[in-house]
Amino acid sequence: MNILVVGGAGYIGSHMVKMLAKAGHDVVVLDNLSTGFRSAVKYGELVVGDLADIHLLEGLFAKHSFDGVMHFAANSLVGESVDYPSKYYRNNVSNTLNLLDVMVRHDVRHFIFSSTAATFGEPDYTPIDEAHPQRPINPYGASKLMVERILKDYATAYGLNSVCLRYFNACGADPEGDLGENHDPETHLIPLILQAASGRREAITVFGRDYATADGSCVRDYIHIQDLCSAHLLALEHLITGAGQGALAFNLGNGAGYSVQQVIEVVKRVVAEDGCELVVKEGERRAGDPAILVADATQARAVLGWQPFYDDLETIIRHAWAWELRDKALLS
Ligand SMILES: NC(=O)c1ccc[n+]([C@@H]2O[C@H](COP(=O)([O-])OP(=O)(O)OC[C@H]3O[C@@H](n4cnc5c(N)ncnc54)[C@H](O)[C@@H]3O)[C@@H](O)[C@H]2O)c1
Ligand SMILES: O=c1ccn([C@@H]2O[C@H](COP(=O)(O)OP(=O)(O)O[C@H]3O[C@H](CO)[C@@H](O)[C@H](O)[C@H]3O)[C@@H](O)[C@H]2O)c(=O)[nH]1
User: For the CA atoms of 89, 90, 93, 95, what is the dihedral angle to 10 degrees?
Assistant: First the structure.
């Protein structure tokens, strides 16, 4: 198949490009390199450009005959979205509309969308299944939910078939060590802890110890990037074979929650093997953090046949640690 990966120079997109290429598909990456990296695109053709550029999109779709589109491009910092909502609605919603409209004009009807647990807001219950109400509490989550809504209307009106995959906490790195997580600024827990362990940061700060959880720190569902990508491949096949039609959505996580403290303990164990230690500091709660977010991914397993392979937190951390050591060595 010939697949367009929008945002393929970013963390999740770059791993997806590799998996698609390894599975024998042709890949074109469209990325404006705003938060992604040219060096992360190791397979296929990279077109540097912006989703806001409708002429570029028209040219791209006229030149290639795409079988499907995977859309990872977005701004995704919760705090920034509260301060600059315009940026989020423009990039995550308006620019996505540009993409969807050009797809409809060129009769490309298979679309996989990166959605998020942030569309649920404060959970009423956990694990969170697809029936859980979606009440986002920040513009980032709201922008993603708007696209989910748009996709329902585009399925009805234009026959555009789509799968929204709502990731919980994406983490880990390519098991072969070719790719890993690079965000600037980095805000995600696991890479921050590893940077503290490797000496790139002074310490890791735990944001709040007074949550209603076993040890007082927040609980999250950490899912390996390879398992996220395998779900995308299955979702694409589900659409292309015609098994899935309309606008579908699945929650993606391992269904197991780990507290910030538990993640720190696993990291300490792994990095001690390399003689590294970790300084842990206590901090205030970060605004907008729910106490517990854990996915119920029963639907993804039942409908897509998805099976996470790297569902053990220690393996996830080992892969991310290998990437951190490589990255640090490159920088020094
Ligand atoms: N990382 C997570 O834990 C997580 C969790 C849930 C959902 N998501 C979603 O997954 C997707 C990928 O996340 P990531 O962590 O890989 O982010 P990332 O920032 O590493 O990747 C996003 C990529 O999109 C590109 N991009 C952004 N706007 C663009 C535009 N207008 N035109 C062209 N390219 C553009 C960036 O340059 C970057 O390469 C995002 O949509 C994010 O909201 C991520
Ligand atoms: O220095 C830090 C950074 C994070 N945390 C905590 O670690 C947990 C995980 O935080 P983070 O890695 O920032 O992920 P989330 O805030 O859970 O958000 C991720 O997961 C969401 C879905 O669950 C997605 O919507 C977001 O895009 C993605 O960044 C949270 O409880 C944070 O409070 C700390 O204690 N210290």
Answer: -170
Q: What is the helix (H) or strand (E) element at residue 233, kind and residue range?
A: helix 225-240
List the CATH number of the domain containing 237: 3.40.50.720
- Overall number of domains in the chain: 2
pTM of the predicted structure, to 2 decimals: 0.97
Q: Is residue 178 part of a domain?
A: no
Residue 330: which H helix or E strand, with range?
helix 313-331
Distance from the CA of 300 to the center of ligand 2, in angstroms?
23
ipTM of the complex: 0.97
Are residue 206 and residue 278 in the same domain, yes or no?
A: yes
In a domain, 210, yes or no: yes
Element (H, E) at 45: strand 45-48
Ligand 1 atom 11: residue of nearest CA = 72
pLDDT digits (tens, 9 = 90+) for 143-181: 999 999 999 999 999 999 999 999 999 999 999 999 999
Residues 88 and 130 in one domain: yes
If you measure from the C-alpha of residue 217 to the centroid of ligand 1, how many angstroms do you get, rounded to a whole number?
27
Name the residue range of residue 18's domain. Answer: 2-171+222-252
Instruction: Looking at the structure, tell me whether residues 202 and 310 fall in a common domain.
Output: yes
Closest ligand 1 atom to Cα of 118: 6
DSSP 117-162: GGGT-S-SSSSB-TTS----SSHHHHHHHHHHHHHHHHHHHH--EE
Outline where 174-312 has alpha helix (H): 189-198, 225-240, 260-272, 298-299
